Amino acid sequence: QVDVAAMARLFGYVDVTDTGFIVAVLSIAFNPLFWNVVARWEHKTRVFSRVFGSAHAACYCLGAVILLLNCVRSHCFTEAMKSQPKLEGWDCHWTYYSGLAISAVGTLFVISSFLALGFTGTFLGDYFGILMEAKVTSFPFSVLDNPMYWGSTAVYLGWSLM
């Protein structure tokens, strides 16, 4: 038997009916769905490479759209966090600085991943036929298998704590 009392108490602090919360959840779910559908469609049809005249131009355009969608997602997330109830006892300096530290580590993983992969490596260039010469194994890939995902998760966790 599972005791769900702690989980029920935790969900008492989340207002799932809040419009900002719903929009944030939808934007969080939409982003990876969108870029994976677009990238797979490009991989099968090469339609964007033809429209933009080259695979690189198409990849850069998709990357720009992904960055724009990430800005929208971050804004929605921030607005949702502002409207949610706060956990009692967690609104203190210790929580804020812990969140700041977690966000800093996450940012380190995201930025170092981007620098290791480059723009086309980060933004699905392989679906456009833009392949790297070798698998990237330097930091942060020497520490984590998916440093950009883990880093992004850490950024949002830290942001939530802050």
Automatic annotation (TrEMBL):
Pfam families: PEMT. It is a multi-pass membrane protein. The keyword Transferase applies. InterPro entries: PEMT/MFAP, Phopholipid_MeTrfase. It is an enzyme of class 2 (transferase). GO terms for biological process: methylation; phosphatidylcholine biosynthetic process. Its EC number is 2.1.1.17, 2.1.1.71. One of its GO terms (cellular component) is endoplasmic reticulum membrane. HAMAP family: PLMT (MF_03216). This is Phosphatidylethanolamine N-methyltransferase. It comes from Neopipo cinnamomea.
